[in-house]
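To whoever is covering the structure queue this week,

Two jobs came back overnight. Logging them here so there's a record in the thread.

Job A:
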Amino acid sequence: MEIAHRTNVGLVRDLNEDSAALVRREDGSVLAIVADGMGGHQAGEIASQTTVKVIESILQSKNFHSTEERTNSILSAVGKANAEVFYLSQNNEQYQGMGTTVIAGIMDSCEVVLGHVGDSRAYMLHKGGLYQLTEDHTYVNLLQKYGQITTEEAKNHPQRNMVVRAIGTAEDVEVDLIHTPWNPDDMLLLCSDGLTDMVAEREIGLVLSSEITIEEKADELIQQAIQAGGKDNISVILLKNTEIL
């Protein structure tokens, strides 16, 4: 499996409140995590770092014998991260109200298993087509879902970044669990909204489909987000299935 990871503070923010981890596990699978923190000064950074640290510590060396075990372990790890961030926010005045998105996945040569909370995203490039695997947990997405606004209206909605589900903002959290097979030459992208708010899906698909290395693709995605304004922190993890049939 080819892998690449990039993060950038962008052009507007003083701090990078995104956190990420990309770990090759002993069994040949890969653990990937992206978290996009939110809150007061440094609080978002604490929320995202804590979430990544907790999930990584639980999943990096755990043995799995089935898809169900992977799914349950991701669900448990995300739940423990939520409990830790919530505890910190309740017991430290400077961290009150903090939270973070998270997308955490375990990938081997056959399948992708993801846990997702918030508006960070996962995409799959398969046979030249780019498919979004996750659903944004945002107020605007709910409005769209129930037909109250159009896709165009959503792009410019004043509350388009309001997250309605996040790690650490409540004692319990609902986690979306996603399981999908993937094939040789398929590519998986995990990213914070600092990429998807700045770069259109069509442009992301063109970069992922281009004849450059996976490292160059990660660099190009970051550069396109910066050239478009870089209004938020930008984090990208890319994984390519290089298994030969």
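Job B:
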Amino acid sequence: MNTNYILIVLGEPYSIFSEVIGKYFSKKQKFKKKIIIIGNENLLTKQLKKLKYNFPINKILSYKDAKKNKINLIDIKFKHNKIFDKISSKSNEYITNCFKKSLQIINSNKGKFILINGPVSKKTFLKKKYSGITEYLSEKTYSRNEVMLIYNHKLSVSPITTHVPIKKVAGSINKQKIRSNVVALSDFYKTILKKQIRIAVLGLNPHCETTDKFSEEEKIIYPTIKYLKNAGIKIFGPFSTDTFFIKKNIDKYDLVIGMYHDQVLTPMKTIFNFNAINITVGLPFIRISPDHGPNTEMMGKNLSDPSSFIYAMNFADNI
């Protein structure tokens, strides 16, 4: 994949994202790829000024006009009265148009773009129609096997089910889902990161045991691991979660597959804090999201940690 551009969708206009990118772009403006921000120029400029960050913005109409080592921006209309405000559904059309414009650009020249999106509010923007931006972009791109990868070069994790209520997790796990996710992730590492990896798989039940007649470990997880191992993938497990995330274990593996969201994201964030990024595998392009939400409590206070966006940009620029 020969990517030449990084598209940055600003996402929710009332969040910490303007502060995060302000901290980054005010210090760094030399890149291997061309940078294009997609969002409202007027609001972004006001927010950056309020936060005391300054870098030149090169306003363009087409991605073809983007200049290297410039912070290029394609303007998306957004009516606003305040520089920082409460999140509301008034931003929904604007956010939709930002994503729509980015996908139009990507579709016009496939293979040239990496997409980084700022945070959005699941409550006001997604409105329970989608469980996350991963699923939102999957539908918009007619993708059928999107996979969430929380990535750090030392250790990454991926849940088989994403934003699914706990009571529905067991019924959402099956052999085909585990197989397709693992194959997609293995291919991503091989083709994009040029790396052969060792994969650990966690069980669903405490200690990988259950008193029920049906054991997910025995009937679903272990047979799938055996199948994938026979297919040439270096995969091991199932392991009990309560003791897995200790140093002597995680040093042996590159990727940990969990059965549900918090089973793997909680230890991942505890270990790496914001030095990790959310990559969606299985889309027609590489999509990356910094590992933080809108965080409105810290909005406009200049106290936000830009580590995850820095990690995202470094990953995207060097891929």
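Note for Job B: The chain has two domains: 1-143+283-319, 150-273.

Please reply-all if you pick these up so we don't duplicate work.
Q.
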